[in-house]
Amino acid sequence: MFGIGMPELVVVLAIVMIVCGTNKIPQMMEGMGKGIRSFEKGVSEKEELTATKAIEADPKKS
Q1: Domain ranges of the chain
Q2: For the chain, what is the radius of gyration of the CA atoms?
Q3: Looking at residue 59, what DSSP letter applies?
Q4: pLDDT (tens digit, 9 = 90+) per residue, 5-61?
C-alpha cells in the first residue's frame, strides 16, 4: 500500500487527531464519504450517457 506500513499509519492518524481534534474527524470522514459517493455517481451517469449515445447512434445493434 504505497510503501506505508502500520507504524506510519498510526503516526499519521495521531498527527491528524492532534491537528484536527477528535470532534472534527467524523465530520471530515462524512465529507469524504459524500465526495466519494458524488464522484461514483458522476462516473456512473457518464457511463450511462455514453451507452445511451452509442445506442442512439446505431439503433440496429440493439
Answers
A1: 6-54
A2: 21
A3: G
A4: 889 989 988 898 888 888 888 888 899 999 999 999 988 887 777 777 777 776 565
In the numeric block, the cell 470532534 is attached to 23
Beta strands in the chain (DSSP E): none
* Residue pair 40/32 in contact by the 8 Å Cβ criterion: no
Q: Are 17 and 25 spatial neighbours (Cβ–Cβ below 8 Å)? A: yes
36-55 burial, b for 16+ CB within 10 Å, e for fewer? eeeeeeeeeeeeeeeeeeee
Q: Which of 2, 29, 6 is nearest to 14 (CA)?
A: 6
Rounded CA separation 48/9 (Å) = 37
Residue 12 half-sphere exposure toward CB, CA atoms < 13 A: 6
